Each structure stands twice: as C-alpha cells, then as structure tokens.
UniProtKB/TrEMBL annotation:
Signal peptide (from-to): 1-32
UniProt keyword annotations, A-Z: Cell outer membrane, Membrane, Signal, Transmembrane, Transmembrane beta strand
UniProt protein name: TolC family protein
PANTHER family according to UniProt: OUTER MEMBRANE PROTEIN TOLC
Annotated GO CC locations: cell outer membrane; efflux pump complex
Highest taxon above the source species: Bacteria
Gene source species: Lichenicoccus roseus
GTP-binding among keywords: no
InterPro entries recorded: TolC-like
One term of GO molecular function: porin activity
Primary localization class, coarse: membrane
Compartments where located: Cell outer membrane
Length: 420
C-alpha cells in the first residue's frame, strides 16, 4: 500500500512509517545487489554435495582402468619355487631337486583394446552423469531459493503490516484520549496489532527455516538472486526438437550409459576365458654327477572357455544393456513431458503476475480511500483495518506471483537442460 497517498493528519502520523518502509525497500535492494546468483548457489551446493566426491572417485577409477589396459600385460608377473629331497621320506640317497618358474599373464586377442574402450565409455558416462546431477541439484537449489523468496516476501509484508497497525493504534489511542473515538476502537486497533505481530513471528520462523535449508544445501543463508541471468529469463521458450532433446544432459547421460553397457558386453565376449600365461622354468638336480642336472624350459598355459563361466557374465552384461536402453527411452519421455509442464507453468505464472499486480493496485487504492473515509467519520474502524489487511494480502500475492514467474522461467531453462 502506498504511504505517499495518505493525506491530512494520517499522512503526518504515518510519516515515520513511510520512512521506515522506504528504508526497508532500500535495504532490500542493497541486499539483493550483494546476493549470490543462482549459478553461484549451485556451484556452492555442488562443492558440498557428497555425490560430487563419489563421482570424482568413480572417474578416477575408470581413468585408472583405461591406463592399466595400455600396459604390456593384464596382470603382474609371478614367480614360484619348489624344492624336493629324499632325506626324511624316501630313499635317503641325497637326491635333491630345485625348481623355479617365472611367468606372466598375456592379453587375449583384442582384450586390451576392449578393456580400454570399456573404461573410456564408463569415464564419458560418469562425466555426463555429473552434468545431469548438477542439473538435479540446480532444481533443488531453485526450489529452496523460491521457498526462501516466498518467506522473505511474507516477512517483509508482515513487517509493514505491523508498522501500519502500530501507527493506526497510536492514532486511535490519541483519538480515544481526546474523546473523538469510542473505546471499542482502541480494542479493535490493539487486536489488529496483535494479529499482525503473530503473523510477523510466523513469517520470521518460516524465513529462518528456509535459510536453514539453504545453509544445509549451499553453506550460505543468503537467498540467491533469481533475476541474475536476464538472458535466460527473457528467452522465448518452445518445445525442443530431436537434436536439442538429445543434447539434454539427462538424455545424454542415459545415452552414454547405453554406450558403456555396449562396450562392457563387447569386453565380456572378447574375454571369454581366463588370460593365458607364458613363462620360463629352471630345474637344478643333484644326481651324482648326471650331465642333465641343470635344465631350462618354457611354460605355456592356455585356459579354455566354458559355458559355466561365460553364460552368467554375458547374461549380466546383456541385462545391463537392456536396462540402459529402457532408461534412455524413459529419459527422453521425461524430459519432453517435463518441458511441456514447465512451459504450462510459465504461461500460468505470467498471467497470474499480471492479474495479481492489478488486484494489488486496486486494493491499495481502495485501502487509501477507506482509511480516508474513516478519518472523516464515514467508515467504522473495522472497515479500515479490513481494507488494509486486504491490501497487504494482495501485495503479498503480487510479490509471490512475481517470484513464481522468475522461478517458472528458471524451471523452463532447467527443463531444457540449461545449467545456471
């Protein structure tokens, strides 16, 4: 409600209130100028998110597997040693044998390449999954920021209502003291002030709760500025084409997951048996001067594949592939439906803001006229307080509609896969 439209004694009495309201507006604008953007809030939330640390670890593991696949051998070499004699059990003729082996596993044909490609596919999927996780986190930050804006608007209007009720009570108390108003008006004014103070206490508790949620999510109680990216907010939004849909981080992540599942299945089919092994063996024997006491040989171990080994592994890889295909189809549908819903909310928010602003202006003007009529004795006090309450409620609804429009614009941007 505009303070500057009050006239006569009311304007003089409410001048401090007007100055207080203007000070609150200036303070709120200064705070908004220093407020972090939604991008800053999302970055802070990602820094604190446990999933970001887990994702970093998973990416490190996939990168390590890719590097290991470029090694000369799939596993570490190993050595074995054996010793035999006939002293304790046997002929007790002093016969001894020393035998040693040094061997290493070998890659199956194509196994190293398939292993590296599988690891790289997992790495690409994890990187794209990080973008999808950031998008989901941005949605959570937006929800908390919107709730915080609602709470801040509620508190600001509640504070103005308390100030107006207190000023009204002062006027009524003076009028009752001079005999210009009945005592019942003082009770009504006191009741209006008490109701406004209760509403302010509830609004402050609501704001504290919203700020607490923001602290848990972003580490800061500052409300993000939802108007900090005018290019995103002003852009005209339409339903995406097929190419734009595929570039969405959620769809792209599901597609990368499908590619990783395909690479894992190829690896299972290539590595259809345990790795072969090759090595050298040496034998030293004590056989009373025999010319073949020392011998060297070559060892080659070639395992065979089996149904018992391969069928479960192929079945698991195939199941992963089928799950990835289903998830890709689901993500495409969800993204398209989510954008349609976000666009519908945006259209509704635009219409609501316009209507709410009109209602707020009309009720503000009506409140001014009703209060003026009360001052000249044409209206009872209860009508003036009701008119003020209706004006403050309309002001709050207009503020909420404006915040909802900003949130709806961001919701559309997020539904399109645009990160703040």
């Amino acid at each position: 409600m505009s303070c500057l439209r009050w006239t006569g004694p009311a304007r003089v009495a409410l001048a401090p209130a007007c100055m207080w309201v203007l000070g609150m507006v200036a303070a709120s604008r200064a705070i908004a100028a220093r407020a972090p953007s939604l991008h800053d809030a999302v970055q802070a939330a990602w820094t604190l998110a446990p999933d970001s640390y887990a994702l970093d670890g998973q990416r490190g593991e996939a990168a390590a597997r890719a590097r290991a696949a470029r090694a000369f051998f799939p596993g570490a070499p190993y050595a074995t040693g054996e010793y035999f004699d006939d002293h304790l059990i046997g002929s007790n003729q002093g016969y001894t044998t020393y035998q040693g082996e040094l061997a290493t596993p070998l890659w199956l044909p194509g196994e190293g390449t398939a292993t590296e490609r599988s690891a790289q596919a997992d790495l690409l999927h994890l990187s794209q999954q990080g973008e999808a996780m950031r998008l989901e986190l941005a949605r959570q930050v937006l929800e908390q920021a919107t709730a915080g804006e609602f709470a801040a608007d509620n508190r600001a209007v509640a504070a103005r209502r308390v100030q107006a009720a207190r000023q009204l009570q002062d006027i009524v108390s003076h009028a009752v003291g001079t005999g210009e108003a009945p005592g019942i008006d003082a009770e009504a004014a006191q009741a209006a002030l008490g109701s406004a103070q209760i509403a302010l206490s509830d609004a402050e508790a609501q704001l504290a709760g919203a700020q607490g949620s923001l602290v848990a999510l972003t580490g800061s109680a500052e409300l993000p500025d939802l108007t900090a990216n005018p290019a995103v907010l002003a852009a005209d939004r339409t339903l995406p084409g097929a190419e734009q849909l595929e570039r969405d981080p959620r769809v792209a992540s599901a597609h990368r997951e499908l590619e990783a599942a395909e690479a894992a299945l190829r690896l299972v089919r290539v590595a259809d048996r345990d790795d072969p092994e090759v090595g050298i063996e040496g034998i030293h024997e004590k056989q009373f001067g025999s010319p073949w006491d020392n011998r060297v040989g070559v060892m080659l171990k070639v395992p065979f594949g089996s149904t018992a080994r391969n069928l479960p592994r192929i079945a698991a890889a195939t199941a992963r592939l089928n799950t990835a295909e289903a998830r890709l189809l689901q993500q495409r549908r969800l993204v398209a439906i989510g954008l349609q819903q976000a666009l519908a909310r945006l259209r509704a928010a635009r219409a609501n803001r316009s209507a709410a602003a009109t209602v707020a202006r009309e009720l503000d003007g009506r409140a001014v006229e009703v209060v003026r009529a009360w001052h000249v004795g044409e209206m009872p006090l209860i009508e003036a307080t009701r008119a003020q309450t209706a004006a403050f409620d309309a002001d709050l609804a207009a503020r909420r509609a404006s915040t909802m429009l900003q949130a709806a614009q961001w919701q559309v941007a997020l539904a399109e896969g645009v990160l703040p």
